[in-house]
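Late entry, evening session. Most of the bench is empty. Finally got around to the prediction I had been postponing all week. Sequence below, unchanged from the version circulated by S.P.
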Amino acid sequence: MTTLTLQFLGAAGTVTGSRHLLALGDRELLVDCGLFQGKKELRLKNWEPFPLPLAHLDAVVLTHAHLDHTGFLPRLVKDGFRGPVYCSQPTADLLGVLLPDSAYLQQEDAEFANRRGFSKHSPALPLYTDEDVQKALRQLRPVTGRQPEKLDNGFRFHFHDSGHILGSKSVHVAVDGRRILFTGDLGRFRSPEERPETPREAADYLVMESTYGDRLHPQRDVRPWLAEVIRRTVERGGSVVIPAFAVERTQKLLFILRSLMDQGKIPPVPMHIDSPMAVEAVSIFMRYSQEFSKQDRELVEKHGSPASWPQVHFSRTAAESKKISASRAPSIIISASGMATGGRVLHHLAQRLPDPHNTILFAGFQAPGTRGHLIANGAPSVKIHGQEAPVRAQVVSLSDFSDHADYQEMLAWLATLPAAPRQVFLVHGEAAAAAALQKRIESKFGWNVHLPQLGEKVVLQ
């Protein structure tokens, strides 16, 4: 039997940069192709050369559209990868919005750094350009249905719904008599229709995320808490700034806020969705509205698309974004990026962080080393575009919005597997979270669990 190896090129000991390389002789398959985000030493890894000749890489399979799983793909193509990239159809649709925006933001940040002269590099360069993105998008091969896909190199794979975001999948790979299941990011157990799918086939090896391996999500209705935060902010004349992931989180927030306004639980202040991709992303989500929860489907049937709601304003241009920043009228501003690592939200934070009348509301996981993590954890100031911005605004974090399963939900999903894997590899989690989940899995199931190091290569027997 030919030696099969699995190498962890990202998301080992951290939650970003998901890249897992399977190699069988000279046949190679990469599962996920994510950007490293957060700490500088992680971001610098995006500039490192890929650890094997890209002519040897046969194909890429993507679990879902978030940039920490897909955002390195244009760089891979820029550096010479020419193979197919497999993903679900919704993921392909979302990447047509997310990747061009990623390239735009990187080019914009590089240009801004060059104008202001605060980059250590002269000139500052983007990791990739829109031209690289367009080449990468042409290599996408959307997969529909549940039949296994057979690749030219002998690998087979099929998808399971992971319940994380629109189009998110777990990937079951089979090659040379061995079976490997990559969870991608597992979603919440919110209802029978909103939960990760149980795989039908057993796997010899399981590569599993561990983002919330050391904590539980609050068991509460988040809407009263959210309404109270917004009411109090508006009463003192401030605005609520929500750094939100452009995919899934923004759309869910829109429906929740519309419902609270309809019920009179929050004042009817303007809601600004400040992202060039917002209208396109909403359009994509409406295309797959049959996959919404029952409650959200009822809102769609009653109100139609958020793009038509009078209280919602989508900002497409830089001029519109600057107008929002300049206004001091109370409002709700939802803008990317969700961890405040870049994008238009930085301008809103620079304007509103110093004012105690305002509220900064985090509605998702904040990776260590990101501005979002610093602000959420009490930093007195943060650097934005080379300048220190004092943090005087109220800061609120609501983990209820997370689309990642907590440890109880992950253990419940593991209990549904048709058979015990020989080995579990925990990835996509900070060291403490992964270690906590390791202990829980070993205690509950008695399985062999390993925490891989970045760059580690293991042999799959």
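Two things to note before I forget:
The first helix runs from residue 40 to 43.
The radius of gyration is 22 Å.
Will write this up properly tomorrow.
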